[in-house]
Amino acid sequence: MTNNVGFSTSAIDLTQINQSPQGIDQQINQLLTPIADTFSSIIFYAITIGDSKIPLILVWLIVAALAFTLYFGFLNIRGFKHAVKVVKGDYSNPNDPGEVSHFQALSTALSGTVGLGNIAGVAVAISIGGPGATFWMIIAGLLGMSTKFIECSLGVKYRHIDETGKVRGGPMYYLRDGLAELGFAKLGKVLAVFFAICCVVASLCGSNMLQSNQAYQQFLVAMGGDSSIWSDKGWLFGTILAALIAVVIIGGIKKIAKFTSTVVPVMAGIYLLAALFILAVNITEIPRAFGLIFEGAFNPEGVMGGIVGVIIQGFKRSAFSSEAGMGAAAIAHATASTKEPIREGYVALLEPFIDTVVICTITALVIVITGAYTSSDGIDGVVLTSRAFESVIWWFPYLLSVAVLLFAISTMISWAYYGSIAWGYLVGDSKALDLLYKFIFCLFTIIGASISLKAVIDISDAMFFSMSIANILGLYLLAPLVKRDLLSYQTKYQHNSTATAPAGE
User: Fold this and answer.
1) Which CATH number belongs to the domain containing residue 469 in this structure?
2) pLDDT tens digits for 75-97?
3) How many CB atoms are located within 10 Å of the residue 435 CB?
4) Assigned domain for 304 exists
5) Residues 6+ positions from 429 with CB-CB distance below 8 Å
6) CA 14 from centroid of its chain's CA atoms
7) For 338, how many CA atoms within 13 A lie in the half-sphere containing its CB?
8) Global confidence as pTM
9) What does each C-alpha distance from 394 to 190, 272, 398 come to in angstroms?
């Protein structure tokens, strides 16, 4: 996703994607551009401090993450050990309600966040903000763990399970039912519908069309570029991709969870092993790299906007990488088999840690150690990351092409599920309507690989970040309920001699 203030998960800048001077895509762009510009100007309104523009939506996300971290007494740190135990299955009970295991729920949510943002987005942040942006990216990721905890606890607390065992949960439900419980029924309904509309649009466009487009672009590069027989076959690539995705998403959350719990660890593992190999080869340079990161975080040189600019770049990357505060991950975590909503909240706090603190930081270290970010030829994004790895592993660009494709597919599959649940909330949960959404999703996959609709993506970006407006407002109001449940959960384990107390107690 890309927008006018620099948020981006894209491996390729949309302005670099070839567009035909004539055609239906340009006509649609011309029609939707005024709408996209209006949405973007509102959602991404920025204030200027020094030489830096600070989007207020970013402030909204970071302030919430800091507030929840303080409110829950740094549970993001204290609860880490307990979260790992839950994911391992130490507290699992096959008779608990839900559709997937804690690990599968975490994998599904991670597949929607671990991806191009970790490969390309980090490079963009370092290119603009220098190595110091990495430090602030880590800080934002750690704070985001608290936001994930509260939203995913609520996802389980207010989920709906029908007579067949199918689970429906997420912000739509905890905004509607949770706020009604507090006496804000009308507000809850409005926020729930607003969130669901934003989620559906974001899933079809930015989290589908853009991923499809960039998967095709990366595939085209690997196949030889414009001289390849695939150079004008975006529609064919998109059709094949849509067919693969359809096989998975039509099977529902259990099939999606099975796919993501296999693919995500494998692709992340391969990527991390390559990165760790580079760090091992350059082990003597690691202290110097950390020195550059810490020095650049507080005393940046040659960076537009100074320290404020560095902080903003780090926070931007973390916001888009972890999606903490957007609420979408709560839809996946709501399907976990558990009777304890707080338990899944513990699991969810691991998500920003894995996505941002671990994967993004290792990527940043590789870029800094190899010196790729000092390149003066203007490259950034996935190309910069690829060059950093290629300096040590000549064949890594080919592996990266496979990784980009797998990351894109896993992201699309997870967001297809998010969108289907939001769609069902808006139009009803009939099987026919669910299949209609999935058909539309696959159709958009084909369109995304075939053409570039910048205005559609801009609207999707606005919708994506708009989800955080409704979601975080609800989180503030519902936080006391989660804190009450957290204290009850901790007390239960303190007085149960056969159980292990949550970390930090």
Assistant:
1) 1.20.1740
2) 999 999 889 988 888 887 777 88
3) 12
4) yes
5) 162, 168
6) 19
7) 31
8) 0.84
9) 53, 16, 9
